[in-house]
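User: I'm new to structure prediction. If I give you an amino acid sequence, what do you actually give back? Let's try with this one:
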Amino acid sequence: MCMMSARYLIIKISFLNKGFRATGLIIALYLFAFSQLQFNGLLAQEYLKRQKKFADSLFSKKDYFRAITEYKRLKFFDSNGSFNFVSDFKIALSYKGGAKFKEAANYFNLALAEANNDSEEFTANIELVKTLIIARRTTRALAKINSLKKIYYGNKRKELQYWQGWAFMFAEKWVKADSVFRIIGETKLDSVCKNVLNERYSLTVAKIFSYLMPGAGQLYAGHPWSGLMSFAWNALWGYLTLKAFFAERYFDGIVIGNLLWFRFYRGNLQNAERFARRENKKIYNNAYDYLQFKFKGKKL
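Assistant: Good question. You get back a string of structure tokens that encode the predicted 3D arrangement of the chain. For your 300 residues, that looks like this:
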């Protein structure tokens, strides 16, 4: 009886040992698999970091379209999405640098959806606004700024007002731009707006001058030769029209007046406004050139 109990005990122990060995083997396999996953994860993360560094190097060299390809590659292999905001944001900046403003705006919106914190979201919004301004989509830029001003205060609100002033300049609303820059204390940009306002021609004044005296509007807008010619033609056909009426040649007076005098008179009004607009455009472009090449502050 004792012999059988001992034998049974030995068999039971051997089974237990086998069970422990099997459990140990399973645990070892799990640990090995886990370590491999961790190792592969580290390798993948290292690859993504190298990929980002390469894309950043292309971006810093202003090789924007190759940079776009590499940032898209980074985003494709980033299964965890840890580089999504950076990828979309840099792709947007690259498109902006390559003057592809529609594509840039689309990727800034993607970056906004991937923002990890308030700072990233605000930065992406500012870059989106700047892109809309430089693309001359100023109505949309101003609407975006107004919606953001309801959310942000302090220095962030002041920065929004700064870009609001830029949007007004690119919309050729110089009075509003001057008002914004004066409020936030941007004296250099305020001076740019004041110079434009002092130099530009009034379309209303040009037309009033031409109403009162043909050719005067062109003289006011800086086109003396056109003004003198307009005055001479209007004087000639006006004289002949009145002469015909005074001589009771009413039909001749009506024909000369309608077909010649009034034609040159209307042309005089149109030319006054056209020349004033043309000269204003030159003044605006000079201001934009200064902002692009000589202005030292924050710009688009």
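You can read the tokens as a compact description of the fold. Here is one thing that stands out. Residues 218 and 227 are 5 Å apart (CA to CA).
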